[in-house]
Design a protein that fits this description.
The complex is a heterodimer of chains A (473) and B (61). Chain A has 473 residues and is α/β, with parallel strands linked by helices. Chain A has one domain: Amidase signature (AS) enzymes. Helix content of chain A is 42%, strand content 14%. In chain A, strands 1-3-2-6-8-7-12-13-11-9-10 form an eleven-stranded mixed sheet, sandwiched between helices. In chain A, strand 12 and strand 13 form a beta hairpin. In chain A, helix 2 runs antiparallel to helix 3, helix 7 runs antiparallel to helix 15 and helix 9 packs antiparallel against helix 11. The model of chain A has no long low-confidence stretch (mean pLDDT 95). Chain B contains three helices and no strands. In chain B, 61% of the residues lie in helices and 0% in strands. The radius of gyration of chain B is 18 Å and the shape is elongated. Chain B is mostly helical and 61 residues long. Chain B has a domain of 38 residues. The model of chain B has no long low-confidence stretch (mean pLDDT 89). The termini of chain B are far apart. The chains are: A alpha/beta (473), B mainly alpha (61). At the A-B interface, helix 9, helix 10 and helix 11 of A face helix 1, helix 2 and helix 3 of B. Chain A: InterPro entries: Amidase, Amidase_CS, Amidase_dom, AS_sf. Chain A: This is Aspartyl/glutamyl-tRNA(Asn/Gln) amidotransferase subunit A. Chain A: Keywords: Transferase. Chain A: GO terms for molecular function: transferase activity.
Chain lengths: 473, 61
């Protein structure tokens, strides 16, 4: 029995030095089974398919065929929103219970080509519509740091599985923060790419205008490796950008010196709970100590971006779900249904005005906020990670917690910008605090370089991974 | 293919969705629309997604 690989890099290195892909996959399948039992992270493991593919790659290697690719043997898993031909895609719902995908999502196919092994599907908030990590059908996913607490969502199973060490990386999706919020709640790196950089074909849509897909990982270098494999032109995705391939690992070790990081004390910091302030002040001091220049900046129109994001998601999701809402409304969880129905009652003019603001607000942010900086710093969560009981009470009430949870993440989707979240400390309840760095369009190399510079200095994973491995659950 | 109902509130009520939930959805829609209307309006900024994608690509640093 081999030990699980803590990172994608470690998995690839072990395979390169002769370890069997099948043995490594078996270890991670067992770990995923444990994560499923302890944390409710798993929708379904695909043990037979994963082991057959691992055996195929092992045989190819024994026959002297060239290595499968830069992710050769890396054991991964995906949010239950991605299609894989012949596997179920249920989107954490009753509506799609038993649904079997006929095609494979572009992102999954890209990881296959790079040599990765897909071990199965991870739980998600119903149709990815929620930031808490709750699900009326499959139950809440539990946070490996403390199982009484939420993981955040909607890529809740992806975050729990990676933080638990069951897989070194997993795919998520981010429409208003659904990669960054759970990654932050679980002490991980979460990368939301620039709109158009990673193909979305075969990922069940929440909001075609705002959806992005990307990885949750334990290290920044793994996020770069994953992005190398994922970034591509996708003919089936109308937002997809044709771009020359880039190596996101090149320059990732260049450090923070010389980077100018904007600190927007207004919108992004105003709602910070006292319990999370210290972690952010310490993070800013460390960024500065590592050579970054901190620059006070304003973010004109960002409040508008936040509100319009909610409107666009509601309308586009309601349009997607309208046939089911007309005939099978009772099959949705009540919170999901309420959020979807808001879009049914929306005015078409308001929706079009919201879409029309995207280009002008983006230009304003780029010309004013980004005029003199490389990156923008913002908290990811504004509060401590709540308990499941607290989140359930808020989600069922008249003032849904979701409005607070996405405060710092939603505007980034509205603007289409890339962002990476990284853990920066612990809050008094013992769960992670995290910040996000936001970049200009397609500035992922700079984002990853800065996040890696911070990660190297902060050593969060090194400090806390042993405790996680020992099992908080 | 399912035809969509002319009256969503009635259709949802007929399926047993509680009236309070429908009212909450309507209130959320109103609040979102008010936010959209209160925001500064820019008649030169088209709703065409291509305009946004173009702005994104021209904004690359």
């Amino acid at each position: 029995m081999t030990a699980p690989a803590a990172t994608v890099e470690e998995a690839v290195a072990r395979v390169a030095s002769g370890e069997s892909r099948a043995a490594l996959a078996r270890t991670h399948l067992d770990a995923l089974e444990a994560a499923g039992a302890a944390l409710n992270a798993v929708a379904r493991l695909e043990r037979d398919a994963a082991l057959a593919r691992a055996a195929e790659l092992d045989a190819a290697a024994r026959d002297g065929r060239p290595s499968a690719g830069p992710l050769d043997g890396a054991p991964l898993a995906h949010k239950d929103l991605y299609a894989r031909a012949g596997w179920r895609l249920e989107a954490g719902s009753s509506i799609l219970a038993g649904n079997v995908a006929s095609d494979t999502a572009t992102a999954c196919a890209r990881l296959d080509t790079a040599g990765a092994l897909d071990l199965g599907r991870l739980n998600t908030v119903e149709f990815a519509l929620g930031a808490e990590g709750l699900n009326a059908h499959t139950g809440p996913v539990r946070n490996p740091w403390n199982p009484a607490h939420v993981t955040g969502g909607s890529s809740s199973g992806s975050a729990a599985a990676v933080a638990f060490g069951a897989v070194p990386a997993a795919l998520g999706s981010d429409t208003g923060g659904s990669i960054r919020l759970p990654a932050a709640a679980c002490g991980l790196i979460g990368l939301k790419p620039t709109a158009g950089l990673v193909g979305r074909s075969g990922v069940f849509p929440l909001s075609g205008s705002l959806d992005t897909v990307g990885p949750l990982t334990r290290t920044v270098r793994d996020a770069a490796l994953m992005l190398n494999a994922l970034a591509c032109f996708d003919a089936g995705d109308p937002q997809s950008a044709r771009r020359a391939p880039r190596d996101h690992l090149a320059g990732v070790e260049d450090g923070l010196r010389g980077l100018r990081i904007g600190v927007p004390r207004g919108y992004f910091f105003a709602p910070l709970a006292p319990a999370v302030e210290d972690a952010h002040e310490a993070a800013l001091r460390l960024l500065e100590a590592e050579g970054a220049a901190l620059v006070p900046v304003e973010t004109p129109g960002i409040e508008t971006a936040n509100r319009l994001t909610m409107l666009i998601i509601a309308v586009e999701a309601a349009a997607q779900h309208a046939p089911w809402l007309a005939a099978r409304a009772a099959d949705y969880g009540p919170v999901t249904r309420r959020r979807l129905c808001a879009g049914l009652f929306q005015d078409a003019g308001a929706y079009l005005r919201a879409l029309g603001r995207r280009a002008s607000l983006l230009r304003a942010i780029l010309s004013e906020t980004f005029a003199d900086i490389d990156l923008l710093y913002a908290p990811t969560w504004t509060i401590e990670i709540p308990t499941i009981a607290e989140a359930e009470a808020a989600a069922g009430g008249s003032s849904p917690m979701i409005e607070d949870l996405g405060h710092c993440s939603r505007p980034v989707n509205f603007l289409g910008l890339p962002a990476v979240t990284a853990p920066c400390g612990l809050t008094p309840n013992g769960l992670p605090a995290a910040f996000q760095l936001i970049g200009r369009p397609f500035a992922e190399p700079t984002l990853l370089r800065a996040a890696r510079g911070f990660e190297r200095a902060r050593r969060f994973l090194e400090d806390h991974a042993p405790a996680l491995r020992a099992g908080a659950v | 293919m399912t035809a969509l109902p002319p009256d969503w509130a009635a259709a949802l009520r007929a399926q047993g969705v509680p009236g309070a939930e429908i009212d909450a959805a309507r209130a959320a829609a109103r609040a979102q629309a008010e936010a959209a209307d209160a925001a500064p309006q820019d008649p030169t900024s088209p709703a065409d997604p291509a305009a946004f994608i173009a702005a994104l690509r021209e904004g690359e640093g």
